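Researcher: Structure prediction, please.
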Amino acid sequence: LDRSSAASDVYKRQFVACVRYTARDKCRKSRDDEQLTNTINRGQILVVTVGLPGRGKTHLAHSIQRYLRWMGVQCRVYNLANMRRSMLGPLNQLPGDYFGNVQHDTETRMMRLNVMERLESTIRQFFEQGGQVAVYDANNSNHERRCLIQEEFGKMGVQVLFIGTYRAILLGLV
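Model: Predicted structure follows.
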């Protein structure tokens, strides 16, 4: 048995189990769907995507949103890159050290911090207005960053769920 094909099968099953948005499920809701809806209705959930760029995080975030909205759950995706673009403009207007694992100067660190704070403030407002599930779509690959998100939203009583993504080709999406 080829190891990569076995891993691919596992990832496919996990993806389908997570999203459960297939052609045959579009027209009917199963007992699992009702249990999921009951779980979501008991509290607020923040789904945080984790992974390297180009691994399907945004695709997964929108699949989750589409499925939960179909279930009648108030859900919204919050994308860090879209927030950055709306606040700071296109890539060519950003400082050279904005991306990557390098030492950022003070101005760049403040820019990055302002974008993250504004996005998290928007997510907090969503929950304060009665939102049920928010999807925080960013790479969140830094362990310290994930701990801060867990701590900040945990204080609000929001359950935080981290979902790591793998290459889209392993999931059969490409």
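Model: Residues 11 and 171 are 6 Å apart (CA to CA).
Researcher: Thanks, that helps.
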